[in-house]
Amino acid sequence: MSKFVKSTASKYKFGAHMSTAGGVSNSVVNAHNTGCNSFALFLKSPRKWVSPQYTPEEIEKFKNFVKEYKYDPMTDILPHGQYFINLANPDEEKALKSYDSFIDDLKRCESLGIGLYNLHPGSSLKGDHPTQLKQLATYLNKAIKETEFVTILLENMAGTGNLVGSNLEDLHAVIDLIDDKSRIGVCVDTCHTFAAGYDISTRETFQKFWDDFDKIVGLKYLKAMHLNDSKAPLGANRDLHEKLGEGYLTLKFFHMLATQFDFLQKIPIVLETPQDNDDGYGEEIKLLEWLENIPEDKKLVNDKEFMEKYDTLQKNGAKSRKEQMTKFEAKQKKPKRQAGTDIMSQMKKKAKK
Ligand SMILES: [Zn+2]
Ligand SMILES: [Zn+2]
């Protein structure tokens, strides 16, 4: 018996990252039992370069569960690539090793009939950033040619500088170089976006983010979201996921997302919050579906039930938020050697000559 019933009333595809323990097909059963309308999974061990291939029986089991539990494998399932895959690595040998694991992932998707795949776009490390973006695009083009239908989603990142995808311009630069644009897209992670310095916490600023996204990347490339609150404050560049409502985004943000941005209704919105078990995800999905039914025009501050929930969750996360704020402020105080200031001093030197 499943503990959480999958909503047929929700307009959104809320879901979560599911375990594959005991076989990849178990992720589908877990998703069903957690009440997911979409879900993510790892296609193989996230910490090993090579894993055994699926047996034909396991593939059939996966496909049967997908049918039985009514998931559309082309749009509702979003596998997550291994974290160490870095196609932008200037070290050719390492980039090639990454490519092997990456193409193996894509082929696994296609063997299971899955139409989407999420990738951290990697880091240019000590290489020249624009050159490494081109290298990444070259590998993506090659992979698209070597596969049939899976769409690769580049996830936006929380960092700065060398980390590819920490800003919208990087995502545009890579997509621009892709030959078959029907096979490329973006997954926006709410925690990463906020930590990267995009203030998405209010109606106006969240709308502005999507306007910028549309202008720079193109909304048609938005194919999925990762839904996380952020333990770290705005612009801290820390990838620290928090449970919904306990971080700096607060429950108001998730209410806004679930009521005022209709274009998010078609895409998988997948939780990656820190939970001890799948029940935690099941409860968060129900929380989102509850938020969805609180009308947007209702004055939230006058909604006693909402405000009680808001306060409880903020209290739960207070200690973590304070810790991260202290760290962030200490980092701000440290004298920084910024690339910008270096360029300024170099220009001054040149001017003197
Ligand atoms: Zn994510
Ligand atoms: Zn993350």
Automatic annotation (TrEMBL):
Residues 30-288 form the Xylose isomerase-like TIM barrel domain. It comes from the Eukaryota. GO terms for biological process: base-excision repair. Keywords: DNA damage, DNA repair, Hydrolase, Lyase, Metal-binding, Zinc. Residues 320-332 have a biased composition (Basic and acidic residues). Signal peptide: none annotated. Gene3D superfamilies: Divalent-metal-dependent TIM barrel enzymes. Residues 313-353 are annotated as: Disordered. SMART domains: AP2Ec. SUPFAM superfamilies: Xylose isomerase-like. InterPro entries: AP_endonuc_2, AP_endonuc_F2_Zn_BS, Xyl_isomerase-like_sf, Xyl_isomerase-like_TIM-brl. Its cofactor is Zn(2+). PROSITE patterns: AP_NUCLEASE_F2_1 (PS00729), AP_NUCLEASE_F2_2 (PS00730), AP_NUCLEASE_F2_3 (PS00731), AP_NUCLEASE_F2_4 (PS51432). Pfam families: AP_endonuc_2 (PF01261). Belongs to the AP endonuclease 2 family. PANTHER family: APURINIC-APYRIMIDINIC ENDONUCLEASE, ENDONUCLEASE IV ENDODEOXYRIBONUCLEASE IV. HAMAP family: Nfo (MF_00152). This is Apurinic-apyrimidinic endonuclease 1.
